[in-house]
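Table S2 (continued). Query chain:
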Amino acid sequence: MSRSTASSNLSLGDNLAQREILGGDRTGVDVNGEENDPVDREPDNLRLVHLLRAVTVEFGLRQADFAARNGMHPTDVRALICLLDAARADEAATAGLLGTRLGLNSAGTTAVIDRLERLGHVARVRDEHDRRRILLRVEPAAIRLGRDFFGPLIDGVLQVLDSFDPAERETVRRFLTATHAVFATEPRP
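Corresponding output:
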């Protein structure tokens, strides 16, 4: 399973090692040499931040696993996610939009689109309202491929959410929306 591709530098084994480094052993040693759990000393809000980070790290590692198994670069997976999000939001998925969302220059964006097109995951199509503009469309086969891999994870999260009442789901939605806004508005270095 730790197969590595030319387009990915991380193997499944590397990803597992990264999980251990980023979220592994949570015990610590206090100043007296006694073991303790540093998580118990964190303020609740900081615990939530660290939990959110752990979820995002795990999701990123799953994306890398998916990329490696399907001969893709991890940026290709992020590009597909951006394009699917744009389609859900009824946004015109252009190369410019994709480059902005991924933080890539024009050449880098073109390289991602070319790779995805060669793999049959994305098609360039003319905008029916403005024939001069080219839009990007995720192909149904790529959607099925993603659903086969990520579907069980998504289904698991949906089951967790089903156990929450509507007010709890609204609180989660408000938290995630506000957190996303913080990241979206904070300039990248």
